[in-house]
Amino acid sequence: MVTCPHCDQKAISWQRKMSMGIAREITCPNCGKKLALSWLAWFNLIPYCFTIFWIFDHTRGWGMWLLIAIALFAVSLIQIFGIPLVKSRKS
Ligand SMILES: [Zn+2]
């Protein structure tokens, strides 16, 4: 579980955090306040986009999809363990 920056409770599941996008906010089930991913998430997304372009350019067939799956898995792990949740500016 991930700790909510508003109420300091472990209220958000790993799956919930993994499914978050940069522009997508979630509501804490404990305190009901809005949470967003830290701006650090941009540094995760940008290299990922370049990697995807590189894969499309250099590989074909099943190898391409395998590399994309690995890149997606890596980016998800970074999002879960490397990117903190922050209080949403809109709440
Ligand atoms: Zn909360």
Indicate the topology.
Layout: E1 2-3, E2 10-12, H1 14-18, E3 26-27, E4 34-37, H2 41-58, H3 61-82, E5 85-87
Antiparallel strand pairs: 1-2, 3-4, 4-5
The chain binds zinc ion (ZN).
Residues 4, 6-7, 9, 11, 28, 30-31, 33 line the site of zinc ion.
Properties at a glance:
91 residues; elongated; single chain; binds zinc ion; 5 strands
Explain what the structure shows.
The protein is an alpha+beta fold and 91 residues long. It has one domain (2-87). Helix content is 49%, strand content 15%. The chain is built from 3 helices and 5 strands. It has helices spanning 14-18, 41-58, 61-82, and strands at 2-3, 10-12, 26-27, 34-37, 85-87. It has a 3-stranded antiparallel sheet, with no helix packed on it. The two termini are 22 Å apart. The mean pLDDT is 91. It binds zinc ion (ZN). Zinc ion binds at residues 4, 6-7, 9, 11, 28, 30-31, 33. Residues 4, 6-7, 9, 11, 28, 30-31, 33 line the site of zinc ion.
